[in-house]
Fold this sequence. Notes:
The chain is 56% helix and 0% strand. With 175 residues, it is mostly helical.
Amino acid sequence: xxxxxxxxxxxxxGVPIQRCYHCRKCTAGCPMAMNMEYNPNKIIKMxxxxxxxxxxxxxxxxxxxxxxxCITRCPNQVxxxxxxxVLRQMAIESGVTAREANILKFHEAFLSGMxxxxxxxxxxxxxxxxxxxxxxxxxxxxxxxMFMKGKLALLSPRTKDMKSVRNIFEKTKNS
Length: 175
């Protein structure tokens, strides 16, 4: 029977996480570490110790921004952002619901935007998220101010090779 560590490594399909020697550089650079239930280093340790339920039920996997600061700082190139993405998908497949309000709806809106255009169109993603969450106007002024300052564009360029984007989604649908 496959261990949790083996399952995660297989799905990451990159540098195995046992390469981590717990230097904590990932955690030191993570902009979200102070908000996480367990820091990135601790999540790796929990995976190595087979604590599947604890990891998949943690808020940490949902709070990762995928900014890749961790992999940039990691001396062994352990891709923690990819690991967190794999863990989120494993949680969804296991029927685990995120404890943070509406974070799964945001995740779905993000992926839907990627699937549609290969890039994120922020206004469209936020409209989709707002409709899914029912939280329509809580930060409308912030969005309007960002638009007025040129920080948000109504139209984003689409990826030219949408066939490759569709192939990625098709290949990862059942993984």
